[in-house]
Amino acid sequence: MSSPDINQFLAAFSGDKKFFLNLPVLWSVTIDGVTEGAINGILDYAGQSWKAKTNPLSMTKGGVLLPAQEVTLPTESSNFSAMDSGTSMGGFLPGYALTSRSNFLDRSFNINFLETELDIEHYFMRPWMISIGIKGLIEQGPTLKSSIEVRQYSNAGKFIKGFKFKKAFPTNVEGFTLNYDNTDFPIKSVTFTCEDYEQIET
Question: Where are the beta strands (DSSP E) in the chain?
Fold first, then answer.
């Protein structure tokens, strides 16, 4: 089998748009399902001074649209076990069977949010986590689980890829240092887990 011509490959790589590197890229994050009112209702009941605040980022459908710099997708893993028939006649190796897929607690993903003037990590993610700590995740009354969609766009505004995380909720918000050395775009990292996720085509 002959190897492909390297010059032909490089010519296609430099001239074919499907090989172009879209840098920089931006992720948009839509959080839909859990609401500011649901979080604040739990916090008020518990006598907490924390309050969720999403305006003016609130969307008409009740979701929250946020900019992000980086999204780390969940690890997908499967566990297998040897299925020995109890005999080694003929020297055959035992077969293997899939026993389980990674559970939702292991199916975590990280989003690095670009901090806006509102500071979405401080005014939404932390109150959300605190309300979960008070109420738990048993579905009674307003839900604290959300549908989260992340979509990646090129610098020309073209959709590249996307993922939808079902029944997701935050499990960790990264600490940060307050000082006078402010960067142009402060980044706040939040870890979520979800029950399942799927690819978005458009």
Answer: 26-32, 64-72, 78-83, 95-101, 108-114, 146-153, 159-173, 187-193, 196-200
pTM as predicted: 0.71
Residue 151 per-residue DSSP state = E
Q: pLDDT grade, residue 18 (50/70/90)? A: low
Max mean pLDDT range (4-8, 54-58, 143-147): 143-147
Q: Which two tokens stand for residue 191?
A: 């870890």
Contact 53, 90 (CB under 8 A): no
Domains and CATH numbers, the chain: 21-76+103-200 (2.30.110)
Whether the Cβ atoms of residue 168 and residue 193 lie closer than 8 Å to each other: yes
Asked whether the beta carbons of 25 and 70 are under 8 A apart, the reply is no
